[in-house]
Write a structure and sequence with these properties.
The protein has about 1050 residues and is of the alpha+beta class. The chain contains 36 helices and 26 strands.
Amino acid sequence: MFRRPSSQASAPGETPSLPLARRRGALGETILKGIASASLLLKRDITSFCDLATCDRNGIVTFGGDYLTIVRLRGMRRISSGPEIKASAARLRLALSSLFAAPGHALQFSYAADPEGVQTTIARNLEERRTIAAALNAEFEDIFSERQRVLPAYMRQERIWLALWTRTGRLSSQEDRQAKAARRRELGALPPIGDAQNPLLGSLELGTIHSTFVQGVLQAFAHEAVQAEILSPEDGLRAIREELYPETIGGEWTPSTPLRTPPDRVPDDDPPRDVADLLWPPLREQLFRDDAFTPDFSTVRLGTMDWTPLELTRCPEVPHAGAPLTPIPSFTELASRLAGRRMPWRATALIEGTRPGYMAWKDMIATFLKFGTNLPINAAFAELKGLRARQEDTVVKLRMAFATSAPAGETETLRVRASRLEQAVQAWGGASASRVCGDPLAGVMSSVPGLAVASTAPPSAGPLAQILAMMPWARPGTPWRDGAMLFRAADGTLVPYDPSGSGREAVLDLFIAPSRRGKSMLANALLLNTVLSPAAMTAQGPRIPLIGKLDVGDSSSGFVDMVLAGLRAEDQHLALHVPFQLIEEHAVNIFDTETCCRMPLDYHVTFLRNFLGLVCKPLEGPAFESMNQLIDAIIPAAFEYFSDHGPSVQPKVWRPGIDPHGVDAALTRHRLAPERDTPWWQIADLFAEAGDMRMAHRATRFAVPTIGDLIRVVREPRIRIAFEKVTPTSGNESTLDIFRRYITHFVDKYPTLNRPTQLDLGDARITVLDISRVAPEGLGESQRQTELMYLLGFHVIARNFFLDPDEARNVPAHVRTWHRRRFEEFRESFKRIECDEFQRTAGAPHIQRQFEEAARRAAKLNVRLGLASQKLDDFGEYLISHSTGRFILGAPDEKEAKAICDRFQLSPAARAIVETGLNGPRPDGSGAPLIWQTRVHHEVYELFVLNLMGPIELWALSTSPKDTALRRRLYDALGTAEARRRLATVFPRGTAEDEIERRETARVKSGQDASVALGGVIEELARELRDGTGLGTVIRQRDDEAGLTNAPGMMDA
């Protein structure tokens, strides 16, 4: 229903709001209270507020023949502030103005903030995580329980709907007459249908107009990067019902409509008076679960909730001609203001086109009153009239209703929330609001989208562009509706992240931030949630995703420890953390091929080129002339030389005692008796024929060449003749001499890299290789060694990830079927490779080429890449330009911030955040902020989110060396779950660094050596937490309160 607005005079010099609205006085409120009391006595049926009658393929149809479509708005794909929202609204106005030049269409925006309902959403999300963990025979209950306990306090969910209405007034008089005549004819052929749904209420003509209107609106929003999803009529009805009764969200209720077969019901009368029992029951009866109860003149009880309505009586003030430039108040400002209140609330705005003469009578009155304090009123009408005359904007009518709720019976809570909602609305650009709206039930129904083109709120006139700027379509948009990881927006809105990468054709993630901004913690959290995501559900059954990480330091040990602690004892081999060293047990031969394969596959050849090219490159300057050509020639020559097929081959031979506990023992077990000096290739083939592929692979390691063998191969005539006369330096040293010198130097320096491989990763699905012990910092030889270790480490963790089933045709026939099946399994499995501290590879072209080659092949082979560094330029142009995910957690200076923003084309709002808002984990524990940009389903998303974790998860994944040392000591003493519980209890911020540094400083001041002091402090803290003494006494107190007096490891004081 409409209410006639009344103008409000402004004080001299005051900027009038556009549009104008009324203010109710004390007398008006008294009258309305009386009306409300009368309404309570009259007990108006709640179903009378619903105009929805039935639906057809064009949408939901009202009793009057109007059409409705519900659209789910999922926000903008970019970060927008006031100026960007204003510019987008102006472009939307251009696209929609013709639709609202006259009455007939309506936009009904609805926004619902639900901090209480988020608990159910998080619980449902965690139930999926528990299901996946159970399928993997893993247990992470302490993490799941903490997420349920911690996350809801910081998060909320929001729902945004757009109800699109097309009224019969859009039909010409002739079309209307024809539609009504056709409907009468069709109805005349039907028996009486009683109160059942009438499937003939719609019309083809209006339905076509409505469909065109819906597509036009969605296209306009799509151009502004606003995600909009048309709901089917049945889904739209479900959305309406869930807004009526939020406690039903997530239920399985489905309406009965003409889009489905009529239900089977037995009539009460025999014979029945009509065919109502054979058709679909009224939508009104289906939507409403029960009648409403109105305890007082401002409260309505619907289901399990009590509601209080609120009306917008004056719109926020907006700039107009001659007024100082002030930003148009956006809906984001209102939502952010209320976010900290942690209360549910809803807002619904109804926008309709107007007649050209709308409010002309008020314009005439304002002209007569053009003096004194009434001048601003006249100016406001003149501004609206001028906009319409100049066709600069379209004047529309706005009615906006709000509501908030509390559990039934909590009257005081509801009153406080209603007061806070009223205060927030009144602070929204100088708007006015009133909680007195006559009939409270009508007021609450006005805040529900899609029931009717009606509102108890007073109508206001204003320019379409300005009104659109105040609507909730510019909220943060998310690429996924659900995900294993839950970020939060700055205002607490839940932002799911799917680490399995659904919708991402290629995944190349870059993590950019200086130290101590939360970069490694974020990477660990993503990996843990990858394990708990649909990535673990494969065609072969539940399996831990394949994850390989090249780490520099101990930053990922917590992730591996967490996974190991969750796995059964028999599955402990599936996760492996290797502190790589140049020792016999970690011997690696870069020439290892696939089992029984005499020649390397394509990806392996690329790695060998890069590795040997780096080995033979001078520390300064470019590579030697013709060295790359020599390397290209010697790689196949080496494999051919040590093969057992072909002329002039010199295969390596087996002798008893070379591998007594491996190959020799397996030969005995399989009752195989090869002759002495049998080529290792034939030993591998014997094992393959016996079905022991593990030992066949082990034998292959002894058959392939090593890097030191290249010195022999380089003497082969086909190599020597081609390169012996090439002298790339000013001296007489040939390319062959330089090659031999560099290879000899490498073998002498790294003897364990010139032996058959001993480092066995076995069947590990998660492998973290820590190369910090072999990758020294510095220049010259240190830098070269670091570069070599990066290449070697990447090959060790990722070689199986790039196996291509198409290459199975290049393997020996007797193992081809086995390899093809294996290659296909690897290709179909989820695979993720990560590399930390990528800045240490800057300026190393061979490493860049290796990672670029990996990026080129990754999408085809279902491989995801993640690289972390401190500066953008460290990644190189190819990796930057082909990245599909960017996690920006900070910039070291203004210059770097500008480079990041320019390169990734961040929005102005995101630029401001990168420059000043990314300073690491927040002291209040609300998370570590980041700008997240990603491409999903060919669309780019840009979000400002926070990575929020509870103290147990923070301790589990902590990357700080001091925290890691303390955690490891307690893991050994108490077990992982109990250790994390105690650490989280004593240090709820997820770190003990401040306490460790305080005690360390005190010891150093007392004369203790710094290195001794640190170890002593960590041991002291571990003892206190283990025994419940010192800082650990808080554990005793908590356990006493919870009745856990016999907690593990607790000693009596």
